[in-house]
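Usage example:
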Amino acid sequence: MKPFTYERARDPNEALRLVGTDGGAKYLGGGTNLVDLMRERIEAPERLVDVTRLSTEIEGKPDGGLVIGAAATNTALAAHRAIREQYPMLARAVLAGASAQIRNMATVGGNVLQRTRCIYFYDEASRCNKREPGAGCDALDGFNRMHAILGASSACIATHPSDMCVALVALDAVVHTLGVEGERSIPLVDLHRLPAGRPDIETELKPGELITKIELPPPLTKRSTYRKVRDRASYAFALVSVAAEVDVTNGKVRDARLALGGVATKPWRAWKAEEALRGQAATEPSFRAAAEAELVEAAGLRHNEFKIELAKRTLVAVLCELAGVAT
Amino acid sequence: MSALKDTAKSAMQTAVRLTPDKWLPGATSDPLMHKHGLLGAPVSRVDGALKVQGKARFAAEVAMEGLAYAGLVHSTIARGRIAAIDTGAAEAAPGVGLVMTYKNAPRMKAPALFGTSPSAAGASSLPIMQDASIHWNGQTVAVVLAETQEQADYAASLIEIRYEVEPAVTSFEMAKGRARRPESILGEPAELEIGDAKAGLAGAATVVDHIYRTPRYNHNAIELHAATIVWEGDQLIIHDASQLVNATASTVAGVFGLKDHQVRVISPYVGGGFGGKCLWDHQILGAAAAKLAGRPVRIVLSRESVFRLVGGRTTTEQRVALGANADGTLAALIHTGVAAMTTHNACPEQFTFPARHLYAAQNIHVAQEVADLDMLANTFMRAPGESVGTFALESAMDELAEALKIDPIELRRRIEPEKDPTSGTRFSSRNIVEAYARGAEHFGWSRRNPVPRSQRDGEWLIGMGCATATYPYYRFPGATARITLNADGQAIVAMASHEMGMGTATTQAQAAAERLALPLENVSFEYGDTALPPGTVAGGSSQTASIGAAVIAAFEELVPALLQLAGNDSPLAGLKASEVEARDGGLGKIDDPQSHESYASILSRAGRKEVVAEAKAPMPLEMQKYSMHSYAAQFCEVRVNAVTGEARVSRFLGSFDCGRILNSKTAASQFKGGIIMGLGLALTEETLFDERSGRIMNPSLAEYHVPVHLDVPAIDIIWTDIPDPHSPMGARGIGEIGITGVGAAVANAIYNATGKRIRELPITLDKLL
Ligand SMILES: Cc1cc2nc3c(=O)[nH]c(=O)nc-3n(C[C@H](O)[C@H](O)[C@H](O)COP(=O)(O)OP(=O)(O)OC[C@H]3O[C@@H](n4cnc5c(N)ncnc54)[C@H](O)[C@@H]3O)c2cc1C
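Running the assembly step on the lines above writes:
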């Protein structure tokens, strides 16, 4: 690991000032991703600015929504009563991720900005457009079982690995930031970029921009869940995951908010499936049609083709479960 | 082994087989095997308290003045040459004392390859850091010594290397095209034919004939490979994490042109071995760097470095063809295939071994080939061969049972052989039919519905499967034990053997206490240091028997020595060694409770502080006279999600027949550990070897999936506890058998649950969708 300096910020403005905009510094949350990447020499910041002493608060809003400080730990988030009761899919998503020890360290801000687990991204000896724009992508013809079937490009097929973010995009979360130009807010679903030709540019954040908090509007319904499909029972990234909230009235889907994880280059809001569901009978065939609609454009590679069918099946199963439809 | 040696060996085997039992040293029954007291008791491990208190000092923790820490650079190409190497920035980095590359490394001989002599330990016979050539992707090309590990690692990252790439064989398909038949498979013939298996198969009423594939697996013991190394003049001391201290010392001595006694290897604690904690490049590189720098060196591999320079289980492609007669007996059994290997190692992955000994068949053909790749030397990994070989063979047995419409346990009963099917020798002790019967009863096998996909719980399909586990009995020659008995009635048994967490020190203390008739707290076992009498490798599940035989030999020296010391004033006066036994902390006349004298009394009367007896175990001729194997029946219940294909093992039972169980607690842990490792082999583990580059792509515990707690169900262990009359203490090996059969038991259960027959490991969910 390259030697670096370490400072701890007392407030957001100090954090912003300490980090600057020259690209040589990084914010440090729990460090569970950043420090690993520094050890692997994928990241080599000269300065670290610890932001774990900034807001960790999780507060209710008058409209019934919630505001979550970016430094709140993953563990605190999943344990929070309002989250467990109002947003069960979020609590489940967080608990489905990593291990208890990692969740104790990991922060909400860091989780949003964690980088892909693509094994070629992690390996210095491999070609990776994310690490080195224009270098090429060794995953395309390599081990791509974990890789994206949605939102990929010929430059990059790496998935966004977060479970938490899948639930957050389904919940219409909004990210609040502080940058040199002041505060702004960005819907989480627009924060991460599709790779297209520049997979190295992963988010809409500007140099030095700090995530201060995440805001959740009130839930559609309390009937929400998160289901993660993976290679071992715990401590593995998702092959496919589904975050879903469905409002079923009189046997019809009034509204639904759905997102997919493990299958896309960013936390994937399943707009097409939602559209296809609205106003339809809450039955397995309409769920299947919605899943088909969402995955029309999915493209599989040698090792990840199976994810297309797996994503459809998982989505249908989750919808059936929430709607109380027997399979 | 040369063909000539093979012939000599088989002639010797024949001679031994014809020799009556009583003429064979060590082939008569050990009286201890029927003793019930300490032997078999669930004694907690003697090093347990030290370990939980963090007081056990592992190789990476040995304190030493002036230590330098080693950082490593690994090659990123599979084959070629280093064209240019720039170490300037690394040398100038803070704390750096030395950068060693092929340019300045001391001249060293290539390590003697494991198997070429009893004292050879080299995992590969390639010279280490002697020239610019690269033989595998991950080879160590530079070692940096610095004041701290962090400084060493950082400096290592500053080294710039330009390679001249040469064409490499990194594809198994390509290598298979020119597969070769090795001279032998660990001393056994690579090919064996009894009758005409092809014709037998062609004429059989029912045939199953399939290809089974197993991937690469890597060693991931929790303790990283490590050594703390110091030169004291021309003496080299290596604090190692080792399962073969003597052979390591001897091989390292050869590398540096030293005499064996100039190298001392010390290894009191090993955090998991499984075949991986042997001699690899790091101990030699560490010693070379220490020599060059003139200071002690600590070399601890990162998890990635373990993947880059310590080999694992190699990939195999196996054909099993079974031809059955109408009555369910076998007309033909064929097990052939190929494993990936290199030209510079000696580990052909003996996957056909189980088929040589398990079943009666009219015609048998087994044959193994190896396909040479430019890759890191593959190596022994818990039940090499048998683990993946039983996956193929026992899956095929299940397929045959299905085809014959008979219960898989019944099929195995019908083909139970009376004597070893390929060697023709008698079994020393074999109770697999009984192990199956008891296992089936405990597991509830009768509740299994033979119709696949017939049991369901919501989304989950439930199935049961079973498979035979087997592992040979080995006892390696050369073990020498020393018993020191002192006037306080304390005994120390010593041998340069190994404790990798199996419970060796505990079990051996138990056995010695029983043999000497002393309370357990009076007996200790010393091991893990080449300064002690020589031991054998802790491999092949052989160590307990190997030590046991040497302790018997030493005890046989001790008794006459004690009788001599006892002299004429003792109640034992005039008795011969054959007339006495160890009893109540001393010796007593057999069948005469009155004539007895304690060790303490004998020694004090003789004015002696202690008496020492040291002896070497006799040659392991029992292995040639009998077919000796451990067995088990493995039972698995699995739940497979009908929506997602996720397979989760919900129950597991192993019913073992491994001779006498010496410590019911540590033995159960060995069996369970083996089974858990087998679950990884079956379902989750796989080394991703990128065939374009020959590079391992998942060198981390995040991406190489060993089973986590949630993947491991309740595991029941039962055993027959029938002593083997021909092994020390009546015990056969228990360390490796646990992993064997598990792959097939899981695959067979998955078939029963889903109707899907998966012939390629690991069985990941995409194969079950
Ligand atoms: C072995 C392993 C398994 C894992 N498994 C899973 C899994 O199954 N599912 C899953 O979802 N995750 C998993 N994770 C990832 C884990 O969730 C992330 O590492 C964690 O959430 C990152 O949070 P952190 O606070 O430690 O981030 P850090 O590592 O501290 O930071 C990550 C990034 O965020 C930036 N950052 C941090 N805070 C801010 C801020 N306030 N404003 C702007 N930038 C900021 C940092 O500069 C850095 O670039 C796993 C991780 C490991 C190591």
